[in-house]
Amino acid sequence: MARPVTPGELRALIAAPHPDVAPLPPAAERPHGTRLLRGVPYAVPDGARPLELDLWLPGAPGPAPLVLFVHGGAWRRGQRDDMGVTTRAWAPGPFERLAAAGLAVACVDYRLSGEALFPAPLDDLRAALRWLGVRAAELGVDPARTVVWGESAGGHLAALLALTHDAPRLAGAVVWYGPADLTTPRPPFDPADPATPEALLLGAAPRDVPEAAVAASPVHRVHGGAPPFLVVHGEADTMVACSHGRDLARALREAGAPVELHTVAGADHGWYGLAPDEVERIFARSVAFATTAK
């Protein structure tokens, strides 16, 4: 008969293993020689659901360069394995293509604005970076060659992660049509409106919490030690004005940080309105940037 235990001891015994030491799920072999580990817990924030990631791995032995992918959805919704409306019908999908190109890809959950306010989602991305570093040898990835890549709200968080001083320095950042400034009116965004996605992220209208709005604005977090950026934005974006991308690129240049800016004529948010071959070219340019970043 087992010896009696205290409630604290029992709680520790029945708890799920910590993500740092929990067994990894078996990898599913994919048709193009890549492997997929789906639904791997990487952090358990206090009082919140476990946060998971999907990990795509190339077929060749590692350590492989790593892409940390951050999904969009106005910080309110979205799925970790979604790169946007124009890529959903791709076969193979965008993440399998990245893995086939020799890049490992971690598609991560983060807490949405209905679950926790900023900076919670940024904290979650930092936790994912830490976990990937802890498990790097098992996974066959090289955390020193990590590029963060995000679209829309995920592009905003990707830029912030790349500009965070106390996070591991990244090899680069790919920002697709991400908000860069939560302080300045840019139609349709109004910092005085308490019902915008930005306000829901911060917990109040950005105008009413100016310090938080500045802290959540990549244009105000730029510094000369930033990693290389690729900023890509549609010139006809009706949801996040193209000036966000232009101003982020300008701020990076003025700080002395390396940046490539590519604005796309006729492209609305999510590359809506573009011909499929144009979306393919944007994707290929982003893959080339991620592959060569060091």
Automatic annotation (TrEMBL):
Q: Which InterPro entries match?
A: AB_hydrolase_fold, BD-FAE-like_dom, GDXG_lipolytic_enzyme
Keyword Cell wall biogenesis/degradation part of the UniProt annotation: no
Keywords attached to this Swiss-Prot or TrEMBL record, sorted alphabetically, are:
Hydrolase
Does the keyword Hydrolase feature in the UniProt annotation? yes
BD-FAE-like domain sequence ranges: 53-252
Q: Which GO terms describe its molecular function?
A: hydrolase activity
Q: One matching Pfam family, short form? A: BD-FAE
By what name is this protein known?
Alpha/beta hydrolase
